[in-house]
Design a protein that fits this description.
This protein is α/β, with parallel strands linked by helices. About 25% of the residues lie in helices and about 25% in strands. It is built from 10 helices and 12 strands. The strands form 2 sheets. The chain has an 8-stranded mixed beta sheet with strand order 6-7-8-3-9-10-12-11. A hairpin with a 4-residue loop joins strand 1 and strand 2. The mean pLDDT is about 90. It binds iron/sulfur cluster (SF4). Iron/sulfur cluster binds near residues 293 and 299.
Length: about 350
Amino acid sequence: MSAQPILKVEGLKKYFPVEKGFLRRVVGQVKAVDDVNLEIAAGETLGLVGESGSGKTTVGRCILRALKPTQGSIQFQIAENRIVDMAQLSDRELRAVRPQANMIFQDPFYSLDPRWTILDIVGEPLKLANLAKGKELEDRVAYLMEVVGLEAKHLRRYPHAFSGGQRQRIGVARALATNPRLIVADEPVSALDVSTQAQILNLLQDLQREFALSYLFIAHDLSVVEHISDRVAVMYVGKIVEVAKRDQLFFFPKHPYTEALLSAVPTPDPDVEKERIILPGEIANPADPPSGCYFHPRCRYVKAICRDEEPPLREVSPGQWTSCHFAEELSLAGAPQQPHGA
Ligand code: SF4
C-alpha cells in the first residue's frame, strides 16, 4: 500500500447491539464493519464498493466520526507531521479536526435544508469552525460557488431553485468550504442521471487536482468508481474481500464477488458479449453471517473448505489483496477492455 498515507484505518469494527424484550436485553451484535484495514495516500482516490448492507457507508461515517467505532484506529494526517487517531478523539478535540475531513452526501434533494439559502448551507461549516463570518464568509461562499461551476450571484437563492446536478455542486461546495484534506463522498452521483453523473465526476477530479484532495469514494456500482479511482476496495458483509489498483481489480479480479460485480458493468462496445453473473439469494445478515467464507452460499466456485474456514485477506499479487482460498487457481472474468496503456 502507499508509503505516506493521509489516512490509515486498522482493525476497524463497528458493531450495533441487537436488543430484545421489555428490558432491552442485548442478544446479539450486528457486525456492520468487522476488522477493516485501508489506506489512502495524499491526492489519491480509493473507491469503496459493495451491495447495500455491505457496511461501506458505516466505514465512511466511522472515519468522519459521525459514528464512534467499536474498535480500531483511524490515523488521520491533519497537517504535515501531525497525525491524530480519529477513533480516540473527544468531542472537543473532534471539533478542531472536523474542518479537515468532510462528506458529500448521496441525495442532493434531501441533503440540503430547503429553508436555508445557499449562503447559509455552504457557509455553515465555516461558521461552526469559526473560520469566517460576515463579509469574509460571504466572499468565501461566492468563491466556492464559482469553483464548483455555479454563479456567485445566486447565493441568496434556496435549494429548490436549482437542478439535481446544481444541488450536488452546492453539496460539493459545502464539503470544500473549510479547505479539507479528505472528502468522503457517499454515493455522490447515484441519484443523478448519467450525463449529470459524468459532469459531477469530472468536477470532483478537477477539484482533486486543484486542491490536492484525497477521496474515499463510496458506491454500490463498480462502473461509477472506474474512472475516478486509483485503487478500489470491495466490501462484503462488513469485510473487505478484495483491494487492488483500479486496473488490476477491473481486468484481473481475484475474488468471485468482484467478478460478479464486474459482470454488471455495462460495456461501451455493444458487440462485446459477456456473461452477467446473477448471484443467488441476498447479501448475508451481518447479525448472523454464514460459517467460513461469508460469500460461500452465493459463490459458484464454492468447495468444502469454504464452508468451514474463513479465508484471510492476503496479498496474491503485488498490491492486490484478496480473501479467497482459491484466488490463485480460479480464472475469473474481468472487464472486457484492455488495461489503460496496455
Ligand atoms: Fe468462493 Fe470459496 Fe473463494 Fe469464498 S473462499 S469466494 S466460497 S471460492
